[in-house]
Amino acid sequence: MRKNLVGWIVLATAVTGTAEARRPAPADSRRVPLRLAAGRLLIVPVTVDGSGPYPFLLDTGATRSLVDEALADRLRLPRAGAVAHETAVAAGSATLVRGTLDLGGIQREVLLIRTPLSSLADLNPRPLGVVGQDLLRQANWWIDYESASLVADADGTVGEADLGERLPVYWHDDRPAIDTLLPDQGRLRLVLDSAASSPVLFRAVPAGDRLRRTGSATLTTLDGPTAVPLASLGPLRAGRVSIPRVDAALLGETVTPRLEDGLLPTALFEAIYFDNRAGAVVLNPRRSGLLALR
To answer: In whole angstroms, what separates CA 90 from the centre of its chain?
Structure first.
């Protein structure tokens, strides 16, 4: 049975406080305001069956959206069976409920996983759901960390501009991955994950001066906290974009082996444009592309 990959990878040391936008975003009907929780995690306003909006965690690394069980019960979302699901550290089953999600005018009826979201209770604001690729793949998106905003590009207008180098996206179980390079260590295929606060490796990387152990940390996932070693990883290169050395969590093999090598936080970039129509992504896109919104 195919499992739904859900959940998040959050360094325990990074789940306090709320960051403010460094500069305000211009007003536009396509722009969705973001709250930056813990400095890197994205909280967006989502309506459920026309009710809300409610704070949801934006998770480009989740195949299916989730809703907190208390909110699902309050909205009386109808049950729709059960599903097998998997996080990076565990597998299990969960109840499905049916609901229509709306984010930035992008709307779709989906089957949400009903689950307690107590693992993220320390975030401010506390998420009442997680929005995943079952909704996000319906449009193109510009995630802008500089102005703390999300642009819903439903008709691909922004994507028609010269935004910069386009990297091919490789979809693994509906999770968007790109190829990155470590000098002298070959390719790493990493999922672009907006709900990861740190890079994560699912399997061993050859030892050497490009990967140095730096200690340990506690990761928080849908299944709770787990202790993992840390290593200093990098520099990485994705196309012409260089990613400086950064601490990465060494998770090891996942419950079910995956084709991708790990997770790459989207917060490592000033902005990122997901061109789901063309199957590509632009890292640090030229901001002139946003002129198409005016």
So the answer is: 18
